Every structure is written in structure tokens, then in C-alpha cells.
Amino acid sequence: MKIAVIYWTMTGNTEAMAYQVAAGVKEAGSDASVFSVSEFDVASAADYDGFALGCPAMGAEELDTGEFEPMYRELIPTLQNKKVVIFGSYDWGDGEWLRTWAQDCADNGITLAAEPLQVHLTPDAEGETACQQLGKDLVA
């Protein structure tokens, strides 16, 4: 499988998660390419078998509306027939942004390959392991 790991980050925490997810994909024997939102060309989405999308909690527990959400909205038609997982870091709240995002995926015909993953701030060893497992689950 060829996986695109696409993330948006403000502090680097979700970026760290993205690279651990990619490590799990690779450990499971698949190919992973990591992109920041600004690096990913949505026109190339059909080239990938699956997607790991990462965005931290922003504002009142919502996705980044400046870069990430517009890219995600444009990507939705491609995601409907692909394996997808979502993840992100947070500093406050209880994960509402991930639950809302997961529901948005379901509402748009996107089936998640695993439960959404949230990590408080920078992933510690346990968080890194969870990210790697998410990558493995994506390609299982």
C-alpha cells in the first residue's frame, strides 16, 4: 500500500505524531510519504491507497480553518473509497474536535480504519507507540 500522511501543525506536536504514524506504516511493510498540508498536492490523491490525516485541536476544539480544513474538504471525494485514519494533539479540552471530525468523516461517506488518536501535547513514549500502532492499523 502507498500511504500519504498529511498533517498541519502549529507547535510541532502533530508533526511528531505524523512521523511516528509513518514509521508504523513502514514497519507494517507499506510505503509512507509524509507531507505538511502546504506540501501536499490534492491532485495527486488518487495515487495513494490510504491516508493518515493529522490536525491539532484549534480554537474552541476545531480543525485549523486556515489551511487544513480547506485541504480536507477538497480531499473528501477521494477519501470516500480509501483507507483513512485521523489523529492530532491537544492542550486543553477532551477531544471534542476529533469526535466532531470523525462524525464529519462518517457524514461524508468516509470509513475510518481505526479509532481517532489524540495525544496530549508532545507524544511521549506511550504516545509514539500509539501513533505507530495507528499506522499499522491503517494498512492492516
Helix/strand/pairing category? alpha/beta
End-to-end separation in angstroms reads 10 Å
Question: According to CATH, what is the topology?
Answer: Rossmann fold
Q: Total strand count, please?
A: 5
- Mean model confidence by pLDDT: 97
Count of helices? 4
Largest sheet: 5 strands, parallel
What is the CATH superfamily label? Flavodoxin domain
SSE order, as H and E?
EHEEHEHEH
CATH architecture: 3-Layer(aba) Sandwich
Which of globular, elongated, flat, extended, rod-shaped describes the shape?
Answer: globular
- Low-confidence parts lasting 5 or more residues at pLDDT below 50? none
**Helix content bin:** 25-40%
Count of all domains: 1
Range of strand content: 15-25%
CATH class call: Alpha Beta
What does this structure look like?
- The protein has a 5-stranded parallel β-sheet, with helices on both faces.
- It contains 4 helices and 5 strands.
- 39% of the residues lie in helices and 21% in strands.
- The termini are close together.
- With 140 residues, it is of the alpha/beta class.
- It has one domain (2-139): Flavodoxin domain (Rossmann fold), CATH 3.40.50.
Give a quick summary of the entry.
By secondary structure, the protein is an alpha/beta fold. The protein has helices spanning 13-27, 68-79, 96-107, 125-139; strands at 2-7, 31-36, 50-54, 83-90, 117-120.
